[in-house]
Amino acid sequence: MTLAEAGEYHGPNDILEYVLFVYDIPYMKASFLQVDTHFKGYDPITNACSFQQTGIMEGIPDGTTTDKDVKVFQESLKANFALDYSSQKVASINIFYLKEFLSFFFGWLLNTFPIHHLVCSVINDVCRMQEEESESKLEAIPITNGDSDVTGRSQGCRALHASFASINTKHCLHHLFDPKRDVNGKIKCQDSLGINPSDLFDKEDFLAYAEFNKEVEIRSAGCYETNVSGKMSVCATQEGHLQIDVSNTERDDLYSEFHSLCLIV
């Protein structure tokens, strides 16, 4: 399974951990409201059928750790998967989220002091790595690499792997600040993998996904705009998909940074 901005996951156990990150993590609970599956094609050389899925996910953030302003959000996603009939196995799964959503998720929803404390408590208490001044070190590195990549040296990568490490300590070395190889000889959360969504999806996929977003009227859960008075308001087309406390003005500067994320489909 591959999500360009979050990395590659091989084997049933690694894929299960990623799926659980979406559904049930310390940061939020999620469920799918809609999933549409369509046949994409057949490859006679590999004897594999490919399918494309589009769906709507609803997330309910944990109010004790994430941005308390966000009560619930909905976001679309796309997946392509191939079934290898020779081996009777799923040969590949590629996942796509809008970069605006990933920026919102890691850069806003999880960009809180309680999340930083939780990540560091996993490092020091669960993993027993005893990283000194871990919260200061965490806040000193980028939230994401580029717009939304969380495979490199970033807070987002450490939030991702802290969630994994909280139930599977093999991930403990992945979110340390000084790089160390894990049992498989891999180093995580240091250098971006540099995978682009266009490496995983073709033009037809993106057009189908854009059409789906248009039909369900979802653009991005991170879509905000700031009015003249400096108070935050939700993009008009997103009002049905995000519930937020508009009376809270303590983060107006942060909201202003994110107003440019509005995506026109």
Question: Can you walk through the features of this model?
Answer:
With 265 residues, the protein is of the alpha+beta class. The two termini are 26 Å apart. The chain is globular and about 55 Å long. It is built from seven helices and ten strands. The C terminus is likely disordered. A hairpin with an 8-residue loop joins strand 5 and strand 6. The strands form two sheets. Strands 1, 2, 3, 4, 5, 6, 7 and 10 form an eight-stranded mixed sheet that branches. A two-stranded antiparallel sheet has the order 8-9. The chain has one domain.
Structural class: alpha+beta
**What's the number of structural domains?**
1
State the helix count: 7
Q: Which oligomerization state do the chains in this entry correspond to?
A: single chain
The whole-number mean of residue pLDDT values reads 76
Gyration radius over CA: 19 Å
Main sheet, how many strands, which sense, barrel? 8 strands, mixed
What is the strand content? 25-35%
One letter per element, helices H and strands E, the order comes to EEHEEEEEHHHHHEEEH
Counted beta strands: 10
Distance between the termini: 26 Å
